[in-house]
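Inverse folding, one chain.
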């Protein structure tokens, strides 16, 4: 240690899962790293339990399983860089690893891909809409209580196939994934965030490396700084701070979206009862006193702190409004607790249920 891991022209191994979306996202970052840092980037396949095992994600530990295998590969030095969909990252940081870059965010909205050009407004009564995400299900049911929400697993092309194959009338997916895969033609409705708030971090990537390799002034640190988008990082910081503050207090699905406008950072968030019978939605803003980014494009410390405070403040507003009581059943709904904290949900399930469990 001490020496920068890499010098210009050096090889960098980028670990990726095998799905089309993961390979596409990793390829985009690999290209950026060779352009920005002159690196020679090799893609290394990392198999994850979530890719192999078709059991419901809740049983195999939530979307965290995708992330854990990549993080283990980084920590074992099987690869030097890992690219994650930020929304799949648990909000707790990983020991020894750093999210060194949050590149410019892609499409943040969820989209509807329906047969015959149908939209959320024009889907017929009782239409079958597929999603595996409790967050999407809750907001769909709130917008259209008459729809039949069908649990759905599989990667993006598999899920689209349920519509073309006639099994479902529509599916809800992240616009970002479709955009990266070149599949935006399948979109029939871009869901407005006033109806469907995306998952915290949706549409953003996280580029993770070993902390020890981020030598100040080193080539890797410089490339990561160039890849980082300060506005995107501030926005996802607010969304993830909200998520981690809520994680302590409730285990219901969460949507959140932060946007910069008129010199302020605006955060909208929703907590849904898992059965979709109730939604709790609040928003808050923080005036950004100084610039969001410094001259290198990195977010300023003040902007990151203000974003985190905004997320925590809005989470507390939601908790004060009863976010923790949205669960319809179980002792937690009756306000009882045990030595283990909130009852009815194990600590592990609390974390994974908050995540957006549609798999990429
Ligand atoms: N949970 C799976 C997942 N993780 C990231 C994306 C899409 C890309 C993104 O949001 O950045 C998807 C697919 C989806 O939700 O439709």
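Residues assigned per position:
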């Amino acid at each position: 240690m001490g020496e920068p891991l890499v010098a210009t022209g050096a090889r960098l191994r980028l670990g990726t899962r095998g799905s089309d979306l993961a390979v596409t996202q990793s390829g985009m970052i690999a290209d950026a790293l060779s352009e920005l840092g002159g690196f020679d980037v090799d893609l290394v396949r990392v198999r994850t339990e979530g890719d192999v095992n078709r059991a419901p994600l809740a049983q195999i530990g939530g979307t965290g399983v995708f992330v854990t295998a990549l993080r283990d590969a980084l920590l074992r030095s099987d690869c030097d860089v890992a690219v994650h969909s930020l929304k799949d990252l648990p909000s707790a940081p990983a020991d020894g690893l750093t999210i060194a870059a949050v590149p410019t965010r892609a499409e943040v909205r969820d989209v509807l891909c329906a047969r015959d050009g149908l939209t959320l407004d024009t889907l017929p009564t009782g239409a079958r809409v597929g999603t595996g995400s409790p967050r999407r299900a809750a907001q769909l049911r709130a917008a259209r209580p008459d729809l039949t929400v069908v649990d759905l697993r599989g990667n993006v092309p598999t899920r689209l196939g349920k519509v073309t194959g006639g099994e479902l009338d529509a599916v809800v997916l992240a616009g970002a994934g479709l955009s990266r895969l070149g599949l935006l033609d399948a979109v029939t409705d871009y869901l407005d965030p006033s109806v469907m708030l995306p998952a915290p971090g949706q549409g953003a990537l996280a580029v993770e490396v070993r902390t020890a390799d981020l030598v100040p002034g080193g080539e890797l640190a410089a490339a990561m700084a160039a890849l980082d988008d300060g506005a995107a990082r501030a926005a996802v910081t607010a969304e993830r701070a909200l998520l981690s503050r809520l994680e302590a207090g409730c285990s219901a699905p969460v949507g959140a979206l932060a946007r910069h406008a008129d010199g302020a950072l605006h955060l909208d968030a929703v907590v849904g009862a898992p059965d979709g019978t109730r939604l709790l939605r609040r928003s808050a803003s923080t005036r950004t006193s100084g610039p969001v980014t410094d001259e290198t494009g990195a977010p300023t410390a003040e902007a990151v702190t203000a974003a985190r405070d905004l997320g925590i403040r809005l989470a507390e507003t939601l908790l004060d409004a009863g976010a923790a009581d949205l669960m319809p059943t179980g002792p937690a709904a009756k306000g009882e607790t045990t030595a283990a904290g909130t009852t009815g949900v194990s600590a592990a399930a609390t974390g994974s249920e908050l995540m957006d469990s549609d798999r990429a």
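Residues 1-103+203-228 form a domain with the D-Maltodextrin-Binding Protein; domain 2 fold (CATH 3.40.190.10). Residues 63, 85, 87-88, 173-174, 176-177, 202-203, 356, 358-360 surround PBG (CB under 6 Å).
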